[in-house]
Structure formats: structure tokens, C-alpha cells
Amino acid sequence: MNLKGKVALVTGSSQGIGQGIVLRLAQAGANVVINYRSHPEGAEETLAKVEAFGGKCHMAHCPQSHGYTLKADLGSVDEVRQLIAESIQHFGKLDILVNNAGIEKHAPFWEVQESDYDMVMNVNLKGVFFATQSFVQHLITTKRTGKIINISSVHEELPFPNFTAYCISKSGMKMLTRNLAIELGDLGITINNVAPGAIETPINTKLLNDPAKLGALLQNIPLGRLGKPQDVASLVAFLASSDADYITGSTFFVDGGLLWNYQEQ
Ligand code: BGC
To answer: How many domains is the chain built from?
Structure first.
């Protein structure tokens, strides 16, 4: 996979899956924008790892490093637009957008607070919608093709009790991808979803620290382990490359077999 000369923005990449994606894309030669909301130290750590790969930025516009950190809350459309604009300003262009930032809130349906509902929908769906819109506008203006990869979840299909807003946001992401695959096809822009199952990341801290829950979950995963950010990142790198030029409008599950696991005891 060769992404030399490409510029990628990965939202929510100071930790977890986003960090894994940034590292994998940088390893393939891409210049990367590392976005964070509340963990500048995680973003700096990610940047240091990117720089440790060595290699220089291959573009005229590029300053010293092939990584760059930018703060933005994906729940705010103003900040989302600013993030895309500053990424373009820094590296001169954008070729790949990975909509990775996502949050979830645990609560029984009858106790969900409006503010929590809004937060989940704003980051997971509205932010993705408008980041994608700004990215597409940039590609149209500069008459170039590009790749959009959304980090969805098995829960774009699978119900997850006590996480209803999260599930709605991810299944909304599925329809966003199907719709845009058609609308952006003529522009040579592809869009796909990568849908992780249970991955070892900070979003799962509670689960990872609860041996009973973790054991029960592992029973449901045919491959018998949680995923790692690298498991997700390698698929994203493929979808971001020219090897995937004919792929659009699809969801690819990275879940160790979790989604379709059904067994009678
Ligand atoms: C959620 C995790 C959950 C996993 C498997 C992910 O989308 O973020 O909290 O453990 O799906 O259910």
C-alpha cells in the first residue's frame, strides 16, 4: 500500500482506533492530520510516533513534519469546518478523510438525557455529515478525487441495549454512506464504512476492567479475542489506497465474527 504524497485527516486520533489509523496511514507514506478534542498529550504522543517512522514530507507545501495536530470538537459544525480548512491550509490539500471520532453514553432508554442524546448525535453523525461536506467541497473546488472512510460499528446493524442513541447514529452513518456513494460517484469520490466490533481502546475501559462482562463478551466472539486498533487500521489503509478504487457504498466488519454469531447450546 503506497500513500506517498497523499494527505489524510483522521478525526479523533489522539488515542484508540484513530491513533492506530494515523500510524498505519503514515507508515504507508501519507501526511497526516491528527485531531484531538481533550487529549493534547495523546495527540503529541501520536505525532511523535508518526515522526519516528522517519521519512520526509514529499510535498511542496509541507513544512518540516509529515504529521500535524489540530484541536477541534467534532460536535460543533463551526469547529468541524475550521478543522478541514486548517488541514488544507497546512498541507495544501486533503485526499483522505477518516471520520473516526465517536462517543457513546450508557443509559436505559427511559433515563436518557437530551444533552447526552445531542452529544452522541452531534459527534457521531452531524459532525461526520458536515466534515464530509467540507471535504467534498474542497475536492470539487480543486477538481480532484478522494476517499472517505467512516468508522462505524457492528452496531450499525446490531442492537445494543442501553446505547440506543449510539446505535441510531451508527445506522444513520450506514445510510449516509449508501446515499453519498451514489451522489459522489460521478466525482470519483468513494465512501465506505469500516465497522469494528469490540476493540481494545479507551471507549471500552469499563468493559476491560470487568472480568465477568469481558468473559461473556469473549464467548460471543468466534475468534476468541478482542480486536486491536491495528486490525481496523490495516483495512482503512487499504480502502484509502488506489487498490480500492472500485469500492464504494459498502460496510466492512472487523469484529472477529461477532456480528453474525449465533449458536444453539
Ligand atoms: C462499542 C463498544 C462495544 C462494541 C461491541 C462498539 O461499537 O463502542 O462499546 O463493546 O461495539 O459491542
So the answer is: 1
- Read off the pTM: 0.96
Summarize pLDDT for 192-243 with one digit per residue, the tens: 999 999 999 998 999 999 999 999 999 999 999 999 999 999 999 999 999 9
**Catalytic position from the list 68, 117, 166, 262:** 166
| Nearest residue by C-alpha to atom 5 in ligand 1 | 198
What CATH number does the domain containing 57 carry? 3.40.50.720
Report d(CA 257, CA 265) in Å as an integer: 18
Cell digits of residue 241: 489506497
In a domain, 141, yes or no: yes
Query: Is 52 part of any domain?
Result: yes
Distance CA 122, CA 45 (A): 27
The answer to whether residue 98 sits within a structural domain is yes
Report how far Cα 23 is from the mean position of its chain's Cα atoms: 13
**Dist. CA 169–CA 161, nearest whole Å:** 14
Q: Mark whether 262 is an active-site residue.
A: no
Say yes or no: CB of residue 154 within 6 Å of ligand 1: yes
Task: Convert the pLDDT of each residue in 79-137 to its tens digit.
Answer: 999 999 999 999 999 999 999 999 999 999 999 999 999 999 999 999 999 999 999 99
Q: Is residue 261 part of a domain?
A: no
Look up the domain containing 145 and give its range.
Answer: 7-254
In this predicted model, what pLDDT tens digit does every residue of 125-154 receive, in sequence order? 999 999 999 999 999 999 999 999 999 999
State the residue for C-alpha cell 486520533.
Answer: 13
Indicate the top mutation candidate among 15, 166, 203 to test ligand 1's pocket, ranked by most ligand atoms within 8 A of CB: 203
